[in-house]
TrEMBL record:
Protein name (database record): Copine-9 isoform X2
A Pfam cross-reference name: Copine
Organism of derivation: Odobenus rosmarus divergens (Pacific walrus)
UniProt cross-references to PANTHER family, sorted A to Z: COPINE, COPINE-9
Key words, A-Z: Repeat
Domain C2 as annotated: residue spans: 1-124
Region annotated Disordered, chain positions: 494-517
Protein family (similarity comment): Belongs to the copine family.
UniProt-listed SUPFAM superfamilies: C2 domain (Calcium/lipid-binding domain, CaLB) (SSF49562), vWA-like (SSF53300)
GO cellular component: plasma membrane
Domain of life: Eukaryota
Amino acid sequence: MSLSGASERSVPATKIEITVSCRNLLDLDTFSKSDPMVVLYTQSRASQEWREFGRTEVIDNTLNPDFVRKFVLDYFFEEKQNLRFDVYNVDSKTNISKPDFLGQAFLALGEVIGGQGSRVERPLTGVPGKKCGTILLTAEELSNCRDIATMQLCANKLDKKDFFGKSDPFLVFYRSNEDGTTVKIDVYDWDRDGSHDFIGEFTTSYRELSKAQNQFTVYEVLNPRKKCKKKKYVNSGTVTLLSFSVDSEFTFVDYIKGGTQLNFTVAIDFTASNGNPLQPTSLHYMSPYQLSAYAMALKAVGEIIQDYDSDKLFPAYGFGAKLPPEGRISHQFPLNNNDEDPNCAGIEGVLESYFQSLRTVQLYGPTYFAPVINQVARAAAKISDGSQYYVLLIITDGVISDMTQTKEAIVSASSLPMSIIIVGVGPAMFEAMEELDGDDVRVSSRGRYAERDIVQFVPFRDYVDRSGNQVLSMARLAKDVLAEIPEQLLSYMRTRDIQPRPPPPANSRPTPAPEQP
């Protein structure tokens, strides 16, 4: 009989504890130093309004406070969780209800978690003509014990409870105290009608169980009632612990904190079915008033993933276009027109290159996914130590023309540190795309099945806000298409037995604010 401590997975909110420090604050007190306090505000996704979340304590007479009171936030990788930290000087000698403003910093929770060792340093701004100092933020995941205990047991000479046959035993484990040191185990005979018969019980401890890594441990199964009634009662059988092992279950945050980077690549459909980009009916139309569906999808996904990529350089490609000057059809051309270095600086850089390509290339066809999937797969294949994980975003308006080759590419890529997000834009029917999303049936090619489910497909139209709120539309899209990325990363790490690297020491320099491209 083999029993495992593993249970069905669920994805509750991850609790993140934020520690706050400040350095070189403004000194607004005449005869002493400032008495700082930090107020945290969170931003509503729907209304974009800022709401106070909490406050630190006030620390007297210092320009370099390390606050004791921490902020505990629910963290969702797939959401852009904007934070605002306002710093005040609270001088009780003047008016505590009107503290002096010392500066503020804006950033996303993902930026803190994605910083080196989940630590970032940001300049405080907001006081004209003054250097306001910096704020240092450290993120720590709050979690219970994540150890998974796996044990193998066998039983001998258990009391017979069935009239016409032997018992059908099973065990029930109880933790008898809060620290989990004592474990009580009941032994039952299973009955089809649910009226299971109690055979006996025994107690042990975590320390005693762990000894089974080196030796067998035999437990007497005792029935308290029988022991009281029968003087010659010995036991109701024995249970022998044959093996016991403990494995740690790591989280997405563990890997990010240990330095795993998310490498984001974009591939955009430039086929003629999108329509003339100069016409308002085109899916690529560059309106001065609002973003196209392509731009919204790119911005929605990219602005979240960029927090987990330290250099903020993103390869961006187009496919299905005729390129100047000779009109060569390409299914994998760099949007920045640089074959040697397809990287764009930040998501804004990707958008600029995308808009520039719309002005220079001719939309044509057909729609091929395999070339760009294989391009990213080649990069992912070079790094297998868990330090890099690749995310490819493909945005398209229609059914692909190389389904057989695309399936082959996905099956091959499923063994690599890589995920693929496909967003369908426009009114087309995308039934064929569902075949690539392996939620129900794994993608297969020539009798070979994908090792992991690495593809997520969604039609953008399902997330468009009816009132025209583009921010809300992008948030809805990102929440759905990115939700599977953490588990896909973990599934790769588990299958390769890759553990997170230890985070850098606490005294190392935190990640500074990225330079603006």
